[in-house]
Amino acid sequence: MTQENINLNKINKDKAEPRREIAESDFTTDVPSENKLAKHAIQVHKFGGSSLATAECIKRVLEIIRANCQLNDIVVVSANGKTTDSLFALHDLVERTIAEQKIQTSDEITQLITALAKAQEKLITDLLNANNTKQLLLRLSKDIEQLSHWLAGDIVKYRNDILAFGEVWSARLLSALLNEQVCPSNSIDSRDFLVIDNEQSCVVDTAKSAAQLRQRRQFGKLAVITGYISKDSRGNSCTLGRNGSDYSATIIASLVAAGNVTLWTDVDGIYSADPRVVPNARKLHRLPNGVAKELGRLGNPVLHAKTLLPLINPLSEHHTHLHVASSFDPKVIGTEIGKFGQIAKQELSVTYLNDLLLAQSVSFTGKTAERAKAEFSPLCMDNQKGFMVITQEQQKSLSQWLASHDVEITFKPVSIIATVGHRVAERGDIKARFKRSLKTAKPIDILGSDNDHSVIAILPETCSIELLNSVHHEMTKDVRHIGLVVAGMGNIGERFLELLPAQLNKVYALENLHLVGLLSSKKALINNDGIDVAQASKLFAQEAQNYDTEQLISWLTQNPYDELIVVDITPSEDFSLLYEQMFSLGIHVIGANKWAASSSTKHFNNLVNTADKNNSLWLGNTTVGAGLPINYAIEDLRQSGDSISELSGIFSGTLSWLFETYDGTTKFSELLLNALAQGITEPDPREDLSGRDVQRKLLILARKAGFELALEDIDCQNLVPEALQSLSTHDFLARANELDEYFSSALSDAKSKGACIRYVARFQYDDATGVTAKVSLEVLPQTDAFANLTPCDNIFQISSHWYQDNPLIIRGPGAGRDVTAGGLHSDLVKICQQLAHKQHQVRIKGIN
Ligand code: ASP
Ligand code: MG
To answer: I need a surface site. Which of 97, 160, 311, 674 has the fewest CB within 10 A?
Structure first.
């Protein structure tokens, strides 16, 4: 959201804030320039019948509007709940009564009218204040009078006027309620501006409709417009067909060049198969327009074929994106339909339709085939073999059409199952997989659709739920898209990114991983369509923008991926403080950063619990020992039922180098300066000598081993004498020789006993004494495992129930660019392998 945007939430909560005035330019119907679009793009929010069914639902809608709408946006509504169904029932009953000349049904008609009126009255009285209740009840009773009058009169003529009441009442009620509780609003009857040629072809008179809509909208008022209805050029009421309000919303969006349309409904998005029958269906976060249209054509229950038409204008530069979201769960990110890059184009889904007919005739070959196709828009057609698949409703008109050509036709009951995705019909691998997945269903034929966005199999039997599930599984088992964000563009971060392209090429588990974000402490490069891994650092240097935490969290919240992994290669405590929010968003974290894993007991436990609750994975193999598998080993022992009683070792590469090398021939301070010059120490070597880093590492491992302890529980010997502790780095380095005496006498003492000195971390637990933990300079016999390391190496020693007499030892390089970046990659593969088996919960009102 740009700075200029003020949402109604703010308007209402902060009364002092002036309402954003609607400028004349907000009402433009011209296609806005890029710039204008970014600032003023109107949003259309459409609420379906189930979202407006009860007072409770409508209150939720008010909150959604408060949080998401600005005054110049547009709200489009369906009739409340099943009002249209009731109006249809009423109309049909009267029609039948007339046809059959029955008098006894008039009671039934009165009952239906009363029920309709009662339902509306209840909504009005439940929701509005006394004054508005009075006014709306009055208007309702006039409408009911009118309705009864029409029902008693020319019912054919007034059919659509009767059906229109549902949306009229719904818009009037919501607008009144908004006026009372949220913001100034007016309701608009779409028949006052939306003109189509006729109900059958439904071509919108765009210029006229746009101009009339502009007149109807009022400055400073949120427009609530009726969906479903319009009028024809002669002024008669028309409908846009059952469930036509979505179509209304996209028509209106195109009239005002809206930036976005949201369909608020009772499912939280579009799934890779109908989630009510396919429990493993996954949400498709982003769908390219053409694919969505094909899904609508092939029977997707959320997307009606016509809905997308007004939004797809190949000639226009302007692109309106469509969102599907749940009004019952507005925080859950739904599906976005629009124009996207490569990643969104990889999505696959499976859809089916039963109760169809395969019609076979010579008329479906040659020249007449084109005409038949234009006339009936079959679900699929083969003009070589001379057949097409149609709905049962089309059977009669098709037979009549062919009778006039004097040709024979045969009909055979069939069903179809299709896999849908961007240009799938051109992809041999997908076609082959689809064919294999149909194994026993014995398809009559398999063919690609004209637009190539689907491959359709025609089946001789009904498509069963079992078949749908197994085909869906085959087609989608490996297409869960995982987004990767790398935070920290330093030395290790750079190396991690250098290794990434090769990893993506060779590791199967990373197949659907996409680099989508790069962060340094100040700059971010985010691209939902993916960042070219081969040029990641270069692109970051050229294109990254300043960002703040709020923007980052907002993007993380909205990210379109099935899973998102953040790799934290920063040394930043501030960044580690974002983990909790990330976990609560279900985001996975790979941390090389030690802060979070060694934070206070309360903070740490809270992080672990939050991650657990939200199924977020948190790996930190490289926090200790770089790539060495010490964290894995401990976790594995623990999970396998072993209990660890001792953890010890040399955890610092720097201190390992210093004490393995220090033999008294060179002064300790000289060695230290030498190590500094080689980059073996931190820029201020006191950070290494203080032992704090080792202390944190021991804490991390002890926690991994299942012990609850805090940093303060670990005694830490600081090797820097107090006199040198608070100097500047420069002064400390100048006086480093003051360290020499201590170390030379410690070393000669040890030597006199045939021993050596090492900086050792040691954790012990036994039932009697509990925990003892310390990091300090120890005197060790030359035979000790810790005494003979390659300088810089780390060593970890574990004693446990299983490893009692002869401890488990892991030893090797515990620092360095390659091994650390490699360790991070190992975590990444591990997370991706686990995520491949993770299942998401489907949210549909009524199911959960
Ligand atoms: N109220 C109309 C119907 O039920 C239109 C809609 O809900 O989209 O068909
Ligand atoms: Mg997600």
So the answer is: 674
